[in-house]
Design brief:
By secondary structure, the chain is α+β, with helices and mostly antiparallel strands. The chain has one domain. 23% of the residues lie in helices and 38% in strands. It has three helices and 15 strands. It has a six-stranded antiparallel beta sheet with strand order 2-3-4-5-6-9, covered by helices on one side. Strands 1-10-11 form a three-stranded antiparallel beta sheet. Strand 5 and strand 6 form a beta hairpin. The longest helix is centred in the last third of the chain and has 33 residues. The N and C termini lie far apart (41 Å).
Length: 207
């Protein structure tokens, strides 16, 4: 069975949220939405969301995003209204400030994921990281030799194979932290690619 392709999946990027002001320093609450349109069919899916930062821009800040959408069961046709909360975390930037990340809330084989990622994808009824959804980038499907932000798919796969234990005494192991750093760099560039592609489409529509 072939893997879902990231570029053809509903996704939400932390870099897109930043671009449109949802993560601005003094912004503690902001609502919005996003719509995905599919190829020639022009079928659409959409979600609304709220970004909330309790204790905004303090050492006690606790940030998260609430996703609100209707899920349709592809077998029964039944509809469920979903209100789904995903925690956000931050890492310091090299020249000051901080960068936000999603914390994947899903469980795979009854193990909590908790990965720090820049992009989340629609996975069945929920949203989570591409690892939990077994989602591949299109460039991965042609051998993974392409590099984004200096990182290739093969680099990620090699780093993941070297991990024998993900956590030790409740803390990520050194090799797992290295994998997370590589994944962050890779997904950061993927998020920027999505924004650039969106800008290109906007420019085409204006012509």
């Amino acid at each position: 069975m072939s893997k879902p392709i990231a570029e053809q999946s509903n996704s939400l990027s932390i870099f897109w949220l930043k671009k449109y002001g949802y993560l601005d320093k003094d912004c503690s609450y902001k609502c919005g939405g996003i719509t995905w349109t599919y190829g020639y069919s022009k079928n659409k899916n959409s979600i609304s969301f709220s970004v909330i930062k309790d204790g905004c821009d303090t050492s006690e800040e606790r940030a998260y995003i609430n996703l609100r959408y209707t899920n349709t069961n592809k077998y029964s046709g039944g509809k469920d209204d979903i209100d789904y909360k995903i925690e956000l975390t931050t890492t310091p930037c090299r020249y000051g400030g901080k960068r936000y990340w999603f914390i994947c809330p899903l469980y795979k084989n009854e193990i909590y994921c908790g990965r720090r990622v820049g992009v989340i994808f629609s996975i069945g009824k929920w949203f989570g990281c591409r690892h939990c959804g077994n989602i591949a980038y299109s460039k991965q499907m042609v051998g993974g030799k392409y590099r984004w932000n200096g990182i290739s798919i093969l680099d990620l796969e090699k780093a993941e194979k070297e991990i024998k234990r993900y956590y030790y005494k409740g803390k990520p192991t050194r090799k797992y932290k290295r994998l997370m750093r590589l994944n962050e760099k890779f997904e950061q560039n993927y998020g920027m690619m999505l924004i650039n592609w969106e800008n290109r489409l906007d420019n085409i529509k204006k012509k």
